Amino acid sequence: MAIPKYDEIMPAAIEYLSENGLSRYRDLETPLAQRFGLSEQEITTEYESGNGTIFLDRISWALSYMSLSGLVARPKRGFYELTELGRSYLGKPEEIKQFVKQKIAERQVSKKADASKEEVAISDNNLLSGVTPHEALDQAYNNIRSTTYETILETILSKSPYEFERLVVKLLDKMGYGGQVKDAARVTKPVHSKILW
User: Fold this and answer.
1) At what angle do helices 117-128 and 93-111 cross, to 10 degrees?
2) What is the pTM of this model?
3) Residue 196: inside a domain, yes or no?
4) pLDDT tens digits for 106-149?
5) Residue 185 domain-assigned?
6) Domain of 32?
């Protein structure tokens, strides 16, 4: 099974908090992983950037969004408990998602009253698609990296053989090859030989 998105985790987190009371967010990892039938590999899958595991991060964002919308309370850092409002949403997974998205959208609009409409729309789109801010940054990073790779390849492939040779020699020189040898990074002049018949 794929790792559930943060909004898919919210109903299961509410049920867990209803049954177990005040809990550290990390305590939800194992029971929720079992509930979603996740493998050990899925539980331990990290972001490409290496900044934490995806599943635990999504649990954290699910709880954070529910805290901002009043479904759960955070009496101390890293600990969450269900509120009375949260109890009223038990067994209503779709309503939980809609309520949280509506409350977060309202917060963003009031918080960014002076911000441009475009910025608010971008935030809303991420929220509605079930993407956490961490994931949005990771996707943006991967898109930029992919575009950069393509640009570099296009640039290299568009070079003449002589320009390519100069590029390779420059690269080797920057990497320290050639050491203290004088003119180690020199490229010989291109030879235009004529074929005599």
Assistant:
1) 160
2) 0.60
3) no
4) 877 777 665 555 454 445 555 556 777 777 777 777 777 777 77
5) no
6) 6-115
